[in-house]
Design a protein that fits this description.
Shape: rod-shaped
Number of helices: 5
CATH architecture of the largest domain: Beta Barrel
Number of strands: 17
Helix content: 25-40%
Order of helices and strands: HEEEEEHHHHEEEEEEEEEEEE
CATH topology of the largest domain: OB fold (Dihydrolipoamide Acetyltransferase, E2P)
Strand order of the largest sheet: 1-12-16-14-13-17
Distance between the termini: 80 Å
CATH superfamily of the largest domain: RNA polymerase II/Efflux pump adaptor protein, barrel-sandwich hybrid domain
Radius of gyration: 47 Å
């Protein structure tokens, strides 16, 4: 009896194990996909990865760097904000440069004042002094001549009345007075003539040099305010108040590299799509006059037709693998640029990766 019970339990265990194995081996029903995979709408279409970017006549998104190094004191815009060309974006600490510019402006103003003084010569007061000195010298000549004449007359009447020494001194005094008169006359003419033309020209060049230095300093001071180069939309801001920036950009603590202070896009209603066609698929690329494309947004069933803009005729390494420009990869791609108008109700942002099929419009499936 005991053996029968054991055999029954063993048989029941074997049946249970077989049942469990059968149930476990049965494939579960697959879950429905969250969205349909991107279908190829063209009979001989080729696939390409694409990235959404700002639509520009040339290039990609607008990367803004500071032209001078300094500490950010204020951030004047916000991400997503529309700005006009010339709108201030950042303010950098300009205390040193501002002081330098003000000093050079003061030096230029001082040099200009000296130039005005030279051009205003002769000064009325200086001319009056020179005229008075001339009159004094003339009076001294008259006095010396009178004294000499008296001594000579006395000597002619009675030679013993005037010594030879006195007569010589009178003659010397008359010659000294004549010399002083000539000096006073030349000094008067010099004062009356005003500043020498070469002094005026030299000072004018000095003023011009200082004014240009001040203008250059003011132009450099203006660069401490980073302004928008185009009308557009602020995509991302990489710098914050207190961060140090330079012409290399702003240090990113996450990537430990340098990034632009700010990235902007055009304010037009279009967005661009840069497609990267694998070099092995380039021979299958349709002629540009027949080229069409459809874009599929990942995570949705949205399908958007694209308008061909241009082809960048340069096959280059695909850097999206590690985002390193020096990366050496076997995969090389040809960039093809399209544009589209974002449809209502579909969220599309620059930087978003999309799937793109390229082909000929006449070769659409169902139209052959």
């Amino acid at each position: 009896m005991r053996n029968k019970i054991i055999f029954a339990l063993v048989a029941a265990g074997i049946v249970a194990a077989l049942t469990s194995a059968f149930i476990s081996a049965a494939a579960p029903n697959p879950m429905p996909p969250a969205f349909n995979p991107a279908p190829n709408p063209y009979a001989q279409g080729i696939f390409a990865n694409g990235i959404v970017e700002s639509y520009q006549d040339n290039g990609v998104n607008v990367s803004i760097y500071a032209e001078v190094a300094g500490t950010v004191t204020r951030v004047l815009v916000a991400e997503g904000q529309r700005v006009s060309r010339g709108t201030p974006l950042f303010l950098l600490d300009d205390s040193v440069q501002r002081a330098t510019a003000e000093q050079q402006q003061a030096q230029a103003a001082a040099a200009a004042a000296i130039l005005a003084e030279l051009k205003a010569q002769p000064r009325k007061e200086n001319l009056e002094v020179a005229r008075a000195q001339l009159e004094l010298a003339a009076a001294n000549v008259k006095t010396a001549q009178d004294q000499l004449e008296k001594q000579q007359q006395s000597y002619e009447i009675a030679p013993e009345s005037v010594s030879k020494d006195v007569l010589d001194n009178a003659k010397n005094a008359e010659r000294v007075a004549q010399a002083n008169l000539r000096v006073a006359s030349m000094q008067f003419d010099l004062t009356k003539a005003g500043a020498w033309i070469f002094d005026v020209q030299s000072q004018a060049r000095q003023v011009e040099a200082l004014q240009k230095a001040a203008a250059a300093s003011m132009a450099l001071l203006a660069k401490y305010t980073v302004r928008a180069p185009i009308d557009g939309v602020v995509y991302s801001i990489q710098a914050t108040r207190g961060s140090y920036v330079s012409a290399q950009g702003s240090y990113d603590p996450y990537t430990q590299g340098f990034a632009p202070l700010l990235v902007m896009g055009a304010a037009e209603g279009y967005l661009g799509v840069r497609c990267y066609v694998d070099e092995v698929l380039i021979p299958r690329l349709p002629s540009l006059d027949k080229l069409h494309a459809q874009m599929f947004i990942r995570g949705t069933n949205a399908q958007i037709p694209l308008e061909f803009v241009r082809l960048q005729p340069y096959v280059s390494p695909k850097i999206q693998l590690s985002n390193q420009r020096q990366e050496r990869v076997d995969l090389r791609v040809l960039p093809v640029i399209f544009r589209f108008t974002p449809p209502p109700g579909v969220a599309v942002y620059p930087g978003q990766l999309v799937d793109v099929y390229l082909g000929e419009e006449a070769a659409r499936r169902g139209e052959l």
